[in-house]
Specification:
The complex is a heterodimer of chains A (222) and B (264). Chain A has 222 residues and is an all-alpha fold. Chain A is 72% helix and 0% strand. With 264 residues, chain B is of the alpha+beta class. Classes of the chains: A mainly alpha (222), B alpha+beta (264). Chains A and B meet through helix 1, helix 3 and helix 7 of A and helix 2, helix 6, helix 7 and helix 8 of B.
Chain lengths: 222, 264
């Protein structure tokens, strides 16, 4: 080829490949968030119902561990790809603008680098709080209902859950839209329906999840 | 033009002696600017005054000054090509600014677009991306008859829309990640939509994206700043098309030496 070809090194994993990894793992995590939210609604049906559901989830160990390993792999791949792309994006503009005006970027897209790590921290805390129990004062491996009531009675803990859920809602809205774009599935025909469905879905996820700590604090679940 | 008047403005302009040196913003008071002058004519006036004083003029890129070549390249008040939508810097007029306004002018800021001097950047990274695959190979000789190859009307229109890209670099300049995906998407779409572009379609998208990454451009995070800044109104849809083509090519491209199938 001609001398115009650059000798610059190309990365092993191309940017679109990494974005596709994020999109595909994002679908898995989207599915988990939705199912987890639906399952949690049983909190409103009393201790027997939600404790029974928890026992049911743990009743087939291979299925439980298969799901856990899949989710862990999805989270790690998602975070690793995001971290790699973030490093490259930072390096792509070593000298920044003194004055940069945003014309199109909304709050959800501009906060992705913040909402992602906030959700990661939340997931770690959430596992210590309600799965392993080491961050819980009176943890029981079988009584999920009491764990939730006791855990959410702390205003600071509940406040953090509410904040994390808002971050999750923002992240899922832009992430959901982005995954269609990244996988090349965004077309003019479906653009508006996709955004509408995502807006409704993210609102439902945030409202339902936020309702649990608020219901405990308000004394509706005790 | 009625309503023409003179305004006094203050410029904060990026001055940089050469590649690799440290640049910074320098302020200039510019009295008596006609609102009928273009942004580049205003800078011409500033440069004339600088030269009269024996100072070094501000280096700027410009060529056709009619909005079609893609040479002009200024980030004006934080937006590539300034505040008017679908308008290149050369077609921006001082009537878009007001008396006493402070205007910040910076070059395209990206690792892949190193500053040559002041407001001029080296955009040959885009040329190398084109050289990597942004073309259609044809035999020389007699021209093919018009309409010998049928092209669906819609594809012709979409290809033409993508071909409106003048390669100015505003997309990468506007992108918070300095991503060039709107540019590459436009070129991949332009050629990939036409029958003449089919033989090299997979090779093209793979090689252009590979070169784009090698040049050190960032990745798309779907913020839409490129689309808003593009003077030729290229749509984000071209990035979706590029992603679709790239993923498709990655997945379906046959490895070298693979069984070529039957046939006598």
């Amino acid at each position: 080829m001609s001398a115009i070809q650059s000798t610059a090194e190309r990365p092993v994993f191309g940017s679109i490949t990494l974005k596709a990894v994020m999109a595909l793992t994002g679908i898995v995590l989207y599915g988990f968030v939705f199912v987890h939210m639906v399952g949690n609604i049983q909190l409103y049906q009393g201790p027997e119902k939600i404790n029974g559901y928890a026992a049911f989830l743990k009743s087939v160990p291979p299925l439980l561990w298969g799901t856990r390993i899949t989710l862990l792999a999805a989270v790690l791949l998602h975070a690793l790809a995001a971290f790699t792309l973030w490093r490259r994006n930072l390096a792509a503009r070593p000298v920044g603008y003194a004055h940069q005006s945003f014309q199109a970027a909304g709050i959800t897209s501009r906060t992705m680098y913040w909402t992602g790590p906030v959700i990661a921290l939340f997931v770690i805390y959430h596992l210590l709080h309600f799965t392993l129990g080491s961050a819980h004062s009176q943890f029981s491996h079988t009584d999920v209902y009491t764990n939730v009531v006791v855990g959410f009675s702390n205003v600071w803990v509940s406040g953090f859950y509410v904040l994390a859920m808002l971050a999750l809602g923002f992240h899922l809205f832009h992430g959901g839209f982005s995954l269609f774009q990244t996988l090349g599935l965004r077309t003019p025909k479906y653009e508006k329906p996709i955004k509408l469905v995502l807006a409704v879905l993210c609102t439902v996820i945030v409202v339902v999840n936020v309702s649990f700590p608020i219901a405990v604090l308000a004394g509706l679940v005790k | 033009m009625s309503g023409s008047k003179d305004i006094n403005i203050k410029l904060r302009i990026w001055r940089q002696k050469g590649p690799g040196t440290k640049g910074g913003l320098v302020s200039y008071d510019v009295p008596g600017v006609s609102t009928d002058s273009s942004f580049l004519e205003m800078l011409d006036l500033v440069n004339e005054r600088l030269m009269e004083k024996g100072d070094e003029p501000i280096a700027i890129d410009h060529d056709c000054r009619e909005g079609i070549c893609g040479a002009c390249s200024l980030v004006i008040n934080g937006v590539p090509h300034g505040p008017r939508a679908a308008t290149t810097t050369c077609q921006l007029h001082m009537r878009s600014f007001h008396e006493g306004q402070t205007i910040t002018v910076e070059p395209w800021m990206a690792k892949a677009f190193p500053v040559i001097k002041d407001l001029i950047v080296d955009r040959s990274a885009y040329d190398r991306i084109i050289a990597a695959g942004g073309f259609v190979s044809v035999n020389t000789g007699v021209g093919v008859d018009a309409n010998a190859i049928p092209v669906p009307k819609e594809n012709a229109e979409l290809a033409m829309d993508a071909a409106a890209c003048i390669g100015c670099g505003a997309c990468a300049a506007a992108c918070p990640n300095a991503s060039a995906m709107l540019f590459v998407g436009a070129k991949v779409s332009h050629l990939g939509l036409l029958p003449q572009g089919q033989p090299e379609r997979q090779e093209r998208v793979l090689k252009m994206v590979e070169q784009m990454d090698a040049e050190g451009f960032g990745g798309c995070t779907n913020m839409g700043e490129c689309e808003a800044a593009c003077p030729k109104e290229i749509k984000l849809e071209v990035i979706a098309r590029m992603n679709r083509d790239y993923i498709g090519a990655k997945v379906t491209k046959r490895p070298k030496g693979a069984d070529k199938g039957g046939g006598a």
